[in-house]
From TrEMBL:
This is Peptidase C14 caspase domain-containing protein. Belongs to the peptidase C14B family. Residues 3-111 form the Peptidase C14 caspase domain. The lineage of its organism: Eukaryota, Viridiplantae, Streptophyta, Embryophyta, Marchantiophyta. PANTHER family: METACASPASE-1, METACASPASE-4. It comes from Riccia fluitans. Transmembrane segments: none annotated.
Length: 118
């Protein structure tokens, strides 16, 4: 069994939508996953918008990283996704409507909303 994680922290620096704790959230979650839950550091992908050496957490990059992690996983593996950043609601993209008439979404650093259908 392999434990994989994708951790995404978006502080949105310089956008006018700045947050100040999201990178800290995923930094702390990485520590919890490796120190308490036995994830190997090499299997924890860390995406933040405050470190130029990180994979930039745009919608396209997040989708690609998740797709690759899913493809690499086998039955019995664990895949954990954690997002810290802005979220919201948008008009529904599919014929399935929720009681409130909207789909929930996350906003990657490029501010293009992502839903479970994205």
């Amino acid at each position: 069994m392999v434990k994989r994680a994708v951790l995404v922290g978006c502080n949105y620096p310089g956008t006018g939508y700045d947050l100040f704790g999201c990178v800290n959230d995923v930094t702390n979650m990485r520590k919890v996953l490796t120190d308490i839950y036995g994830f190997h550091k090499r299997n924890v992908l860390f995406m933040v918008d405050t470190d130029p050496t990180s994979i930039r957490p745009t919608g396209g990059n997040i989708a690609k990283v998740l797709e690759d992690a899913i493809k690499a996983s086998k039955a019995g593996d664990i895949l954990y996704f954690h997002f810290s950043g802005h979220g919201g609601q948008i008009p529904p993209e599919s014929g399935c409507r929720e009681d409130d008439g909207a789909d929930e979404c996350i906003y990657p650093t490029d501010l293009n909303p992502m839903t479970g259908m994205s």
